[in-house]
Specification:
CATH class: Alpha Beta
Shape: globular
Number of domains: 1
CATH topology: Transcription Regulator spoIIAA
Structural class: alpha/beta
Order of helices and strands: EEEHEHEHEHH
Strand order of the largest sheet: 1-2-3-4-5-6
CATH architecture: 2-Layer Sandwich
CATH superfamily: STAS domain
Strand content: 15-25%
Number of helices: 5
Largest sheet: 6 strands, mixed
Helix content: 40-55%
């Protein structure tokens, strides 16, 4: 269900799966990024059963490091009062400069929050979805089946 749709950010919640999907797009000035971060954390407060997050930044552009630092601090402050652990799957931006911002964000969260907030990168929303919802052994089987399927559909020209 769509719970928020604002400039630069849309938020979907799938309560049955304990999953929130935050999709950032376009250029977001500092004030819009801060507002979106607050909106994201408010969504987690409103739906405390959520413990899985997909952060889709594929179409998002560069974010300033100061804004990222503030976002990480807001997340740390929120987790100080929240219960439980979270898993986050990040789909990095297509833009190379924006990727460095996202790497900074991921490294900062992993460093500060350790095991309470596990953040990993994936190449697509589908991969992120399976990475969050399927246990590790099944995830390994899924990737094995995908690679076999891809090989089966490959035509080799000699």
């Amino acid at each position: 269900m769509l719970v928020a749709n604002s400039k630069g950010l849309s938020i979907h919640v799938i309560r049955k799966l304990k999953l929130a999907v935050f999709t950032w797009h376009g250029f977001t000035p500092s004030d819009v990024f801060k507002e979106g971060t607050i909106q994201s954390l408010e969504t987690l407060r409103k739906y405390p059963e959520i413990n899985r997050i997909i952060l889709n930044t594929r179409k998002h552009s560069l974010v300033m490091h100061d804004d990222i630092d503030q976002s990480v601090q807001s997340t740390v402050d929120y987790l100080g009062v929240a219960r439980g652990n979270y898993k986050m799957a990040v789909i990095p931006p297509e833009d190379v400069l924006a990727q460095s911002s996202m790497d900074w964000y991921i490294d900062s969260l992993n460093q500060v929050l350790k095991k309470r907030f596990v953040v990993r990168k994936y190449q697509s929303v589908k991969d992120a979805f399976y990475g969050l919802l399927i246990p590790k052994i099944c995830s390994w089987c899924f990737h094995l089946m995908r690679s076999r399927s891809a090989r089966k559909n490959t035509i080799v020209v000699a």
